[in-house]
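User: Structure with zinc ion, tokens only please.
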Amino acid sequence: MNTFQEDLQEAVAYHGHLCSGQIIGVRMARLGLKTLGIDDPKSFKDLLVYVECDRCLTDAIGTVTGCKLGRRTLKWMDYGKSAAAFMNMETAQAVRIKTKTHMRPPEGADLVGFFDAIPDEEMFSVRHVKIYYRPVDLPGKPLEAMDCPKCGEEVIDGRQVTRGGTAICKACAYGAYYENIDTDM
Ligand SMILES: [Zn+2]
Ligand SMILES: [Zn+2]
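Assistant:
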């Protein structure tokens, strides 16, 4: 297992700067792994991580655990929270860790020194949790695919929803984040 320093270095190199989020994310991930008894996350293939924001700490959790969005081992839950859950898929044992308080170091503070003075028990709350997931959420080949009858686009991994008895894509069901202003080029 990496040392804290090694994990922090790797996180900063990937993320692009040293910030509170890198320190908090590295510590959160290390604590999650420790609680689950996973010593070598990068060779352990059955780890799944749920991050609850898309801020700095998310990158650090990714580098420490080796979990990646594109490998389906890192799930992004858009909750806007400084929290993450770590699950051992082999045993279904899982732990959710959140920061206890808003720790904002004063402007210009030595970040590493500031956070070094705060022990894990003060920084984080840790709970065992049961995680709800479906086979279509797991890594591996897609188990499901369908074409949305409204827009004709393919939806994989069971992400369609049912409206009036018909399965359609989420963009058609909820309204999309984009609007077509053009026809196909
Ligand atoms: Zn950052
Ligand atoms: Zn559609």
